[in-house]
Recover the amino acids of this structure.
């Protein structure tokens, strides 16, 4: 039930209910909510209480809103209609989730009924008879029409690229297509013209890319329409925009071309990871990298997004540097010069590097193309750093991270060539953890025949040694942005600069700590190799613990009992491969799979996989060579049919 409740909380977060920013209010303060702001406050307070698992109090706030919702909408301002509709969706979802916890509510009227009452008040009861609210969304008090004022602008200025065809993953031959947005996300947010990427692109001159900006009065008309709710005022939202404005039928949109990433050959003079990614992160951060709404739909979060382009089309054309939109934008040759927002122009030598990189094929040398650019940069640096340089970087990062986890606690630390231990246990406590880690490392080295002369992981492993469950939970919340499972007292995390273990050591049982660290060090060691999936690393760690303490250990028994249930709940292996299972279920399945591979019939194949990845072979290649393709093996081992 705890896992299910957490999943429900995540559902609320996905629905846009932002957590923790609301001023704390008491339920009695909202017995008679008076306006849209008070409803927003009530919803936010309900979110806080839900996160605290105070479901009864959370339900009170939702009930207050439900009971007064229709009257508030009717008495409110028509300009807020789109926001009321969004709040209605949030309240509906919140009620569904809280009902699972036993809460009961005054039924919330369907949005169509609320809208019908609005129209009835404006126009009389006959006006609503037989009307479909989905097609009657435009308030009469607003004078901007989609068909008369907005669609003609879109056809004139955006038609060639986005009405008649698909460019940059964005097609809007219809109102429905426009509101759906692009591959990069939604381009118009009803009620929020300033936050709408399409309008932002028009205002800045990014769209259209020819540099011929949409006239200000036309942009203002679209802004007014969006602010009023971005509603449709014709019969069929799937009608072609050219048809709506009286033009010829539009061509059927072309399917977007798949993104083709060309791997570096080694002959290039400019490296994406070493030369280009640092320029993009330093100069594009906030607008195209690291922001919630990438400008113009162009998202540089990873290489695939850069190659995909934005609403105006591809940003780069391999082997055509000067012709690429990215270079033209940097030079100010296509609309507004980039970077925008008053930032300094790139240095000529930086633009020259980008142009050269594109001319050489715009190839990629950063490992996983879905990795964030900062990770690509860090990985490139780490590949050339010595063990001591990388360890120093990780130690420095861990000290900074500790300030986030526990800003008021005094930091203590100790280290050797393998481990950097830090936390709030005091010097003696940290030394005990380090001793347990050294002993555990000997077991791991023995099992996998690792040289005692070499570091167990290049760059070392950070160990956060924490005094209490509260500290451990705070590390999960603050560093990993997640609630750690209640049954955990230790876990690991892999990243280039964040290779760490977190543990609440048992003060009275050194052997318990040592065996826990055998599990986590094994997982980290496995995960430090190229392409090793989390299920395999977790499974190896848990199998190592089981081998060390036996199947009757209180930590191991629940895993063995849960295996059959978890495997039965998995419908196919794709979520496991994609890392979409919850942490505990993924680890239990990995435990079962690795134990199977370590059995006498497969031990040689398992050992061959481990030996290959230890020698630098990527996991999928090593697995294919020793056992076979990963997905068919998982399907067969778990008894799942491939869909």
């Amino acid at each position: 039930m705890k896992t299910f409740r957490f999943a429900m909380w995540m559902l609320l977060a996905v629905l846009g209910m932002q957590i923790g920013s609301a001023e704390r209010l008491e339920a009695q303060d909202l017995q008679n909510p008076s306006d849209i702001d008070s409803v927003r406050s009530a919803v936010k307070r309900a979110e806080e209480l839900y996160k605290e698992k105070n479901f009864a109090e959370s339900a009170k706030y939702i009930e207050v809103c439900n009971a007064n919702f229709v009257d508030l909408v009717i008495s409110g301002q028509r300009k807020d209609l789109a926001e009321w509709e969004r709040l209605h969706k949030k309240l509906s979802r919140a009620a569904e989730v809280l009902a699972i916890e036993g809460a009961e509510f005054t039924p919330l009227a369907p949005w169509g009924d609320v809208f019908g009452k609005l129209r009835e008040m404006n126009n009389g009861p006959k006006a609503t008879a037989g009307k479909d609210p989905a097609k009657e969304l435009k308030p009469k008090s607003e004078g901007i029409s989609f068909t008369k004022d907005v669609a003609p602008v879109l056809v004139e200025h955006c038609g060639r690229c986005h009405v008649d065809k698909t460019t940059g993953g964005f097609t809007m031959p219809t109102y429905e297509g426009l509101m759906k947005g692009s591959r990069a996300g939604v381009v118009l947010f009803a009620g929020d013209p300033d936050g709408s990427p399409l309008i932002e692109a028009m205002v800045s001159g990014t769209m259209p890319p020819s540099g011929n900006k949409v006239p200000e009065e036309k942009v203002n008309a679209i802004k007014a329409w969006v602010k009023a709710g971005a509603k449709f005022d014709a019969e069929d939202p799937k009608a072609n925009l050219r048809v709506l404005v009286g033009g010829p039928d539009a061509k059927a949109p072309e399917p977007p071309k798949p993104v083709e990433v060309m791997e570096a050959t080694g002959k290039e003079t400019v490296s994406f990871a070493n030369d280009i990614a640092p320029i993009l992160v330093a100069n594009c951060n906030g607008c195209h990298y690291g922001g919630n709404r990438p400008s113009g739909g162009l998202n540089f979060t990873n290489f695939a997004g850069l190659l995909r382009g934005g609403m105006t089309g591809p940003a780069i054309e391999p082997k055509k540097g000067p012709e690429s939109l990215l270079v033209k934008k940097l030079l100010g040759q296509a609309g507004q010069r980039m970077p925008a927002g008053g930032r300094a122009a790139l240095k000529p030598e930086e633009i020259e590097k980008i142009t050269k990189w594109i001319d050489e094929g715009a190839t990629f040398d950063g490992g996983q193309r879905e990795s964030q650019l900062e990770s690509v940069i860090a990985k490139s640096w780490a590949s050339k750093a010595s063990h001591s340089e990388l360890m120093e970087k990780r130690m420095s990062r861990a000290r900074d991270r500790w300030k986030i986890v526990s800003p008021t606690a005094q930091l203590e630390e100790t280290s050797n060539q393998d481990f950097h231990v830090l936390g709030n246990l005091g010097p003696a406590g940290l030394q005990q953890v380090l001793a347990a880690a050294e002993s555990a490392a000997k077991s791991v080295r023995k099992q996998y025949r690792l040289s005692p002369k070499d570091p167990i992981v290049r760059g070392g492993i950070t160990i956060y040694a924490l005094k209490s469950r509260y500290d451990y939970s705070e590390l999960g919340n603050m560093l990993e942005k997640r609630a750690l499972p209640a049954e955990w007292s230790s876990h690991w995390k892999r990243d280039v600069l964040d290779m760490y273990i977190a543990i609440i050591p048992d003060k009275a049982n050194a052997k318990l700590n040592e065996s826990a660290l055998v599990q986590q060090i094994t997982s980290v060691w496995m995960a430090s190799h190229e392409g090793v999936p989390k299920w395999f690393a977790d499974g190896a760690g848990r199998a190592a613990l089981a081998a060390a303490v036996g199947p009757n250990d209180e930590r191991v028994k629940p895993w063995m009992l849960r295996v059959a249930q978890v495997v039965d709940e998995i419908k196919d292996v794709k979520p496991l491969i994609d890392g979409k299972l919850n942490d505990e279920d993924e680890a239990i399945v990995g435990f079962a799979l690795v134990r199977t591979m370590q059995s006498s019939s497969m031990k040689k194949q398992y050992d061959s996989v481990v030996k290959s990845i230890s020698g630098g072979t990527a996991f999928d290649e090593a697995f294919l060579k020793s056992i076979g393709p990963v997905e068919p093996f998982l399907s067969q081992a778990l008894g799942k049919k491939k869909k």
